[in-house]
Amino acid sequence: MQNIFIIGGGFINKGAEAMTLTVLNQFNKNNTKFLMFKGKSTDEQEAYALNPETDKIKLVNHLGKKLLLLGGMLPLSLAKLFLGNENKKKIENLSKLDTIIDISGFFLTTKFGKRMWFAVLKRFLLVKLMKKLKVKYFILPQAMGPFDEWKLRFLSKKILKLADLIIVRDEKALGYVKELGLKKEINLLPDIAFLFERKELVEIKERRKKNDSKLVIAIAPNMRVYERFFDRNGNNRYLEILSTFIKELPDYSEVILVPHEIKDNGGKDDVFLCNELKKQGILEKFQKAYIVKKKTAKEIKEVISGADIVIASRFHTAVGALSCGIPTMTIGWADKYPELLKLFDLEEFALDYRQLSTENIKSKFKKLLENRNEIARKIEEKLPKIIEKANKVFELVEKEMESSDQ
Predict the structure, then answer these.
(1) Cα–Cα dist 175/150, whole Å
(2) Are 311 and 216 in contact (CB under 8 A)?
(3) Is-contact 136 2, C-beta < 8 A?
(4) What is the DSSP string of 158-186?
(5) Contact assessment for residue 178 and residue 341, using Cβ atoms and an 8 Å cutoff
(6) What's the whole-model pTM score?
(7) How far apart are CA 61 and CA 155, in angstroms?
(8) Are 387 and 198 in contact (CB under 8 A)?
């Protein structure tokens, strides 16, 4: 029996959900048990309950600062002298685990601000405690770096040294990790969400042929881009640029706004951005235009698969579109966007938010639209090799698991 603890997954963010469910599907055996930390927010708990596949996961409470600090920093025999019975019971339960699978996506980086080091410290203490309990630690494909702040750089290196398997998902991340001077193998393989809800391209193309009379365009805004788009005067042009662009799309288009981060209990999310765009009246000229109301990652990918073109500010919206052979352009805030499109020789369609303007989004879209059949063929040609490499992720994990059983 394998007891797998998943960290870095989740259900509010549909990319995290896609990765979580991919792990579940890859290890869908009767003798495998999955555990995750219970979501701290009501939104996370409700999103978890909404997905029928979560009955395979047992949720556990977070460990708490005292257990993390003492268990991570002291020998366990000494730490137990200062811990109560409840924490000792948690250690006993953790000792039954075989493997931690880390699907954080993008965690070890200063891109989230200088205070990110504190979250990384907690991750280090968790992994350190788990390693004392002889639990294997596998880091599945994710972006990493840069490591510009010394505390985060120090802790990231410590975490990576503890890993039994390290896989990054792009060359930029590989370069950042190599700069840390680790004396261990670093694997480079694509994001595991390429395997999520896989369908044959022939089936997807046949479905789209039925809509030949219209152009279906899916647009996924991103709160993380919105947050970074404020200028010194407090103005935010992200929605203004998107709004102007959407207004000028062909009248015969079907426009779908796709939220990828969904919070039902307050707080700004991608649904907020979609509603703000709708309030500006930009969808009224189209015969069909709407905001996706579906909630699960599976349902959202089903919608995306019917599009002719996808404009994604969300990384995993782009992954989902590309896995369906759909011409895609991105509006991103980190290296992971051009690195993703580079897999298909399409990095010219990766726009950085810092250079975003109405003119360049219109120019790139025009080129994507005019060449979409050729671009779709290019994606189709490269996709089988990418899927093969994504499957190799789990071959490596299985190999490491087997070696620990011997």
Answers:
(1) 17
(2) no
(3) no
(4) HHHHH-SEEEESSHHHHHHHHTTT--S--
(5) no
(6) 0.93
(7) 24
(8) yes
Domains of the chain by start residue, with CATH: 2-195+387-405 (3.40.50.2000), 201-383 (3.40.50.2000)
3-state secondary structure (DSSP) of residue 288: strand
For 8, the 3-state DSSP assignment is: coil
Alpha carbons 205 and 224: distance in angstroms, whole number: 32
Residue type, 273: L
Beta bridge partners of 36: 59
What is the residue-level pLDDT of the chain in tens, covering all 406 positions?
A: 789 999 999 998 999 999 999 999 998 776 789 999 987 777 777 777 777 788 889 888 889 999 999 999 999 999 999 999 999 999 999 999 999 999 999 999 998 887 889 999 999 999 999 999 999 999 999 999 999 999 999 999 999 999 999 999 999 999 999 999 999 999 999 999 999 987 766 566 666 665 566 899 999 999 999 998 887 787 788 999 999 999 999 988 999 999 999 887 667 899 999 999 999 888 999 989 999 987 899 999 999 999 999 999 999 999 999 999 999 999 999 999 999 999 999 999 999 999 899 999 999 999 999 999 999 999 999 999 999 999 999 999 999 988 766 5
| Alpha carbons 307 and 316: distance in angstroms, whole number | 15
**Beta carbons within 10 angstroms of residue 380's beta carbon:** 14
In angstroms, the CA 151 to CA 114 distance is 9
Backbone angles phi, psi at 227, to 5 degrees: -65, -30
385-389: long-range contacts, CB 8 A cutoff, minimum separation 24: 386/190, 386/194, 386/343, 387/194, 387/195, 387/198, 387/323, 389/189, 389/190
- How many other CB atoms sit within 10 Å of the CB of residue 142? 24
SS3 311: strand
The angle at the Cα of 168, spanning 156 to 19, to the nearest 5 degrees, equals: 100
Distance CA 329, CA 351 (A): 8
Alpha-carbon gap, residue 45 to 265, rounded angstroms = 11
Q: DSSP secondary structure string, 252-280? A: TEEEEE--SB--SSSS--HHHHHHHHHHT
Two tokens, residue 346? 């399409």
